[in-house]
Design goal:
The complex is a heterodimer of chains A (about 325) and B (about 180). Chain A folds into 2 domains: about 20-140 and about 295-315, Aspartate/ornithine carbamoyltransferase (Rossmann fold); about 140-290, 3-Layer(aba) Sandwich (Rossmann fold), CATH 3.40.50.1370. Chain A has about 325 residues and is an alpha/beta fold. In chain A, helix 1 (about 20-35) packs across helix 11. Chain A has helices at about 20-35, 60-70, 95-100, 115-125, 140-155, 170-185, 210-215, 235-245, 250-255, 275-280, 285-315; strands at about 50-55, 75-80, 105-110, 130-135, 160-165, 185-190, 205-210, 220-225, 260-265. In chain A, strand 3 (about 105-110), helix 4 (about 115-125) and strand 4 (about 130-135) form a beta-alpha-beta unit. A 5-stranded parallel β-sheet of chain A has the order 7-6-5-8-9. In chain A, strands 2-1-3-4 form a 4-stranded parallel β-sheet, with helices on both faces. Chain B is α/β, with parallel strands linked by helices and about 180 residues long. Chain B is about 30% helix and about 30% strand. Chain B contains 4 helices and 8 strands; from the N terminus they run βαβαββαβββαβ. A 5-stranded parallel β-sheet of chain B has the order 3-2-4-5-6. In chain B, strands 1-8-7 form a 3-stranded antiparallel β-sheet. In chain B, helix 1 (about 10-30) crosses helix 2. The radius of gyration of chain B is 16 Å and the shape is globular. The chains are: A alpha/beta (about 325), B alpha/beta (about 180). The interface of A and B includes residues 32, 43 and 306 of A.
Chain lengths: ~325, ~180
C-alpha cells in the first residue's frame, strides 16, 4: 500500500479496486473525519479546482454530500440538474461531458440511470470522473461509507457477518457493498423475495436466503435497502404491506438477532415498509452516522482522484 | 537514488544533550510552562515534541500538552504528495486560542513545510504567538521563515540530505548527513 498508493484518476466502482485500494480510501477518509469535526471544517487542498455534480437522476443526499465534501476541500462546486439542462434538447452524455471539460472542470461527479455511464464518460475525458450511482451497477461511495461506518463501530471488516436485505436485483448499493465487503473478508448474505434476487449472484461469493430470520440470525450487521415501490405502476400498497410482513426489520424480529446488531440504511428510509420506525430510530441504528461519514468518504475520493490526475498530467 | 553517509552529526547522547538545551531555552524565553503548548509536525517533529515536553516536565514539574500536525492537506504541491501516500490525522485535542505555541520539526530546509503548518495551526484558533523549534537547520530557505530554537546548524549543499533517525520511528537516535550519488 505504501509503495503504490492511489493511481486512478476516477472512482467508478468497487469491483475493479484491490483490497489495498479500498483500505487506502478508508484510511484517508478517517483522516478527513477529523477535519470535518474541527471548528473550521475546511482545508485548502483542492483550492482552484472545480467540481461539477452532473445528476441525471433525482438525488438530494448524495449530491449535497458531494457538494459539502468538495467545499470542505476548498474546491468550487457547480450543480447541473438534468431537468434544466441542454440534455432536454437532446445532447448526449459524452457531448455534455466534453462541454463540461471544455469549461476547464477538474472533477465530474455523475449519476445516471444507465449502468456503465460513468465508465463510458471516464474513458472519454481527461477530467476525473466519480460515479455517484449508475443504473443497477455500482454506487461506490455509498458502499465505502457503509463499510467505513461498520469498521468504525466494530473495529474490523474481516470475518464479519453482514446481511443485505431488500431489492438486490435493482440495487447498485447492494452490488458495491458485495464487492467491497467480500474483498475485505466479510461474509455476506443477501435476503429478498426470490424475484428480487438476481440470477448467478452466488458467484460473487455471497449466501442467498429468502428467510429474513435466517439472514438476521448471527449477523453482526444488516444493511436494509430502500424498497423502490414508487417505480411501480400497479397499485403498490398491498405489496408494501406484504413486504413489511415478510421482510420488514422490526423490533420483534431483532429479538432473535445478536443484541448489538448494527442497522444500516442508505436512505431515504420508508418507515413501515422495509424498516420499523422503532428500529430506524433505535440504539442499534447508525443511519445518521452513515450520513456524516459520507462526507469523509467523498472528501477522500475527491482528494485521491484529483491528486492522481495531477500526477498523470506531469507524466 | 543511492545515498552515501557523509558524516554522523549526533548520536544518542548528543541528541539528548541538544534537546535538553532546547527545552531549557524554550522555558527560559517563555518564563516557564504557563500557557505553553507544543505542536509537532508529523512524523519526526511529533516525536521530538513529545520528548521536549517530557524534558520540560523534568525541569518544571509540569508537562505542556502536545499536539500533532499532519500538513499534507495544506501543502502547495498536490502532485508531489507521492512521498506520503496516506493522509494522517491532525491531533490537537486542546484549544490553542491565546496559547504560546511551540511548533517543532526535525529539519528546517526550504521553509515550505513550516508555511503549511502555520496555515493549518491558524485554522485551529488564534494563538498568542507561535515559535519555531527545529533540531537541524540546514539552510536553503525559499520563504522568509526562521527558527527561534535550533538544535544544530548544519550547512549543506542541496545535493545532500540531513537524516534524523529517532528511536520511535527508526529504532535508533542519530543525525547524519547523506550524500546523493547519481
Amino acid at each position: 500500500m505504501k509503495k503504490s498508493g492511489w493511481v486512478r484518476k476516477d472512482l467508478l466502482g468497487l469491483q475493479e479496486l484491490s483490497k489495498e485500494e479500498i483500505e487506502l480510501l478508508l484510511a484517508t477518509a478517517d483522516s478527513f473525519k477529523e477535519v470535518i469535526s474541527r471548528e473550521i471544517k475546511k482545508v485548502p487542498t483542492l483550492r482552484g479546482k472545480t467540481v461539477v455534480n452532473l445528476f441525471y437522476e433525482p438525488s438530494t443526499r448524495t449530491r449535497v454530500s458531494f457538494e459539502i465534501a468538495a467545499k470542505r476541500l476548498s474546491a468550487d462546486v457547480i450543480n447541473i440538474a438534468v431537468e434544466s439542462s441542454s440534455v432536454r434538447k437532446g445532447e448526449t452524455l459524452i457531448d455534455t461531458g466534453k462541454n463540461i471539460e471544455a469549461l476547464k472542470v477538474d472533477i465530474i461527479v455523475v449519476r445516471h440511470n444507465c449502468s456503465g455511464a460513468a465508465v463510458m464518460l471516464a474513458r472519454q475525458l481527461r477530467a476525473s470522473v466519480i460515479n455517484a450511482g449508475d443504473g443497477w451497477h455500482e454506487h461506490p461511495t455509498q458502499a465505502l461509507l457503509d463499510i467505513f461506518t461498520l469498521k468504525e463501530k466494530l473495529g474490523r471488516i474481516e470475518g464479519l457477518k453482514v446481511s443485505i436485505v431488500g431489492d438486490i436485483a435493482h440495487s447498485r448499493v447492494a452490488r458495491s457493498n458485495i464487492w467491497g465487503l467480500t474483498k475485505l473478508g466479510a461474509k455476506v448474505t443477501v435476503c429478498a423475495p426470490s424475484m428480487l434476487i438476481p440470477l448467478g449472484i452466488e458467484e460473487t461469493g455471497v449466501r442467498v436466503t429468502n428467510d429474513i430470520d435466517e439472514a438476521l440470525k448471527g449477523a453482526d450487521a444488516v444493511n436494509v435497502l430502500r424498497m423502490q415501490f414508487e417505480r411501480d405502476t400497479e397499485s403498490a400498497f398491498p405489496r408494501q404491506l406484504e413486504y413489511f410482513k415478510n421482510f420488514g426489520i422490526t423490533t420483534d424480529r431483532l429479538t432473535k438477532a445478536k443484541k448489538n446488531i448494527i442497522i444500516m440504511h442508505p436512505g431515504p428510509i420508508n418507515r413501515g415498509i422495509e424498516i420499523e420506525s422503532a428500529v430506524a430510530d433505535g440504539l442499534n441504528s447508525v443511519i445518521l452516522e452513515q450520513v456524516t461519514n459520507g462526507i469523509a468518504i467523498r472528501m477522500a475520493a475527491l482528494f485521491l482522484c484529483a491528486q492522481a490526475n495531477e500526477k498523470l498530467k506531469i507524466l | 537514488m543511492p545515498m552515501k553517509e557523509k558524516a554522523r552529526i549526533m548520536d544518542k547522547n548528543g541528541l539528548l544533550r541538544t534537546l535538553t538545551r532546547m527545552a531549557h531555552e524554550i522555558l527560559e524565553k517563555n518564563k516557564g510552562t504557563k500557557d505553553l503548548v507544543i505542536v509537532g509536525i508529523r512524523t519526526r517533529g511529533a516525536h521530538l515534541a513529545f520528548r521536549l515536553s517530557e524534558l520540560m516536565e523534568k525541569i518544571e514539574r509540569h508537562k505542556p500538552p502536545v499536539g500533532v500536525l499532519d500538513i499534507t492537506l495544506y501543502r502547495d504541491d498536490l502532485s508531489s504528495i507521492a512521498q506520503q501516500p496516506v493522509v494522517h490525522k491532525t491531533e490537537i485535542d486542546f484549544d490553542i486560542q491565546n496559547k504560546k505555541v511551540i511548533l517543532v520539526d526535525d529539519v528546517l530546509y526550504t521553509g515550505r513545510t513550516v508555511r503549511a503548518a502555520l496555515d493549518e495551526l491558524i485554522d485551529f484558533g488564534r494563538p498568542l504567538f507561535i515559535q519555531l523549534a527545529v533540531l537541524v537547520d540546514r539552510g536553503h530557505r525559499e520563504l522568509p521563515i526562521r527558527a527561534d530554537y535550533v538544535g544544530k546548524n548544519i550547512p549543506t549543499s542541496p545535493k545532500e540530505t540531513v537524516q534524523v533517525r529517532l528511536e520511535e520511528s527508526e529504532g535508533i537516535d542519530e543525525v547524519a548527513v547523506m550524500e546523493n550519488h547519481e
